[in-house]
Design brief:
Elements: H1 3-9, E1 15-20, H2 29-36, E2 46-49, E3 55-60, E4 66-71, H3 77-88, E5 91-97, H4 103-115, E6 120-124, H5 145-156, E7 174-179, H6 190-202, E8 207-212, H7 216-228, E9 235-239, H8 247-255, H9 261-269, H10 273-293, E10 298-302, H11 307-317
Helix pairs in contact: 4-5, 5-6, 9-10, 10-11
Amino acid sequence: MKVIEFLEQAQGKTLTSFEVLPPLKGGSMASIFKLLDPLMEFKPPFIDVTYHREDCIYKETASGYYEKVAIRKRPGTVGICASIMHHYGIEAVPHLLCGGFTREETENALIDLNFLNIQNVLALRGDSRQFEKKFVPTPGGHHYAVDLVRQIHNMNQGRYLDDMIENGQKTDFCIGVAGYPEKHFEAPNMDTDLMYLKAKIDAGAHYIVTQMFFDNKHYFNFVERCRELGINCPIIPGLKPLTKSYQLQSIPRMFHVDIPHELVKEIQKAKNAEAVREAGIAWCSAQSQELKKAGVPCIHYYTMGNAEIIRRIVSAVF
C-alpha cells in the first residue's frame, strides 16, 4: 500500500512513522527488530530505511603506500525493507540517492524493488562524500533529486532508459521527496529552494517529508508558502529529539537548522546527561502535541537508533 493512500484513508487523523538506519557492516537484522519492536504498539503504517552512499578511506598497502578505497559502512537498505515487510506486515520506504548510482544502476534497483512489491521510495540527492567540498554526481548518474524523480515517474509510465524496450511494465511507486522548512543550505534563498521543491512535485513526487526542525513556526510557515506556490501534496513534519548537550553545536553545523533560544537555555541549565535528555524529550513531545493538534497528516520520527526515547515521546502524544 502507498504512503499517500495511508494519509488519505486516515481522514484527518495524524499518523506516526519512524526512520531507521541500516546497521554498520557486520551487524544484523536483530538490531533493527530490537529498535522497532517497542515502537510497533503505535501501529506505524510505514517505516523509512535510509541509504548511505559509499565513502573513501586510505589504506596502507604492503609496500607502505596508501591507496584510496571505496567502502559502504551501512549497506543493506533493500534487504532491510524486505525483512521489515515480511516480519511486521507493514510497508517499508527505502531511500534512493543520486550519489553513488548511475542511471542504469538506479533503474536496476527500482526493478528489484518492484519485484519485491515495495511500492514506496523516498528520492533524495544525497550528501557529498567526506573528502568532497560539494556534491559531485556519479558519472552517468543524476545531478539533482528532480532528475531521480523523473526517472521513477518515467518507469511508472512504462518508460525505461533503453528506448528499444516496448510495452515495458509500468511500475507503481509512490514517490516522496525532502523539504527544508529552513531552506536547503546550498540554496541561495527560500524562494529558490521552494522553486526547486515545486519542480520535484511537478515531476511526479506525491508527498514531502521535512528535514528536522525545533521550532514549529518554521514548519507552519513552510507549509503556508508551499500552498501559496501551488504545492498541495501532503507535507509530513520530521522530528528528532535533542538529547545530548554537544548537539547544540553539532546539529546546526551538520544539518543547518536553528535551535530556539528557549531550548538552548533548558539544555544549558541541565545539571547532568539525564537532565539534558529529559529536556529534549519534553521539547519534542510539546512539538509533537502542537503538530498533532494542528492536524498534520503524519509525524515522522528520526529514531537514530534509540527506541526508548522515541517511545516515550510518542506515548505522550498518541
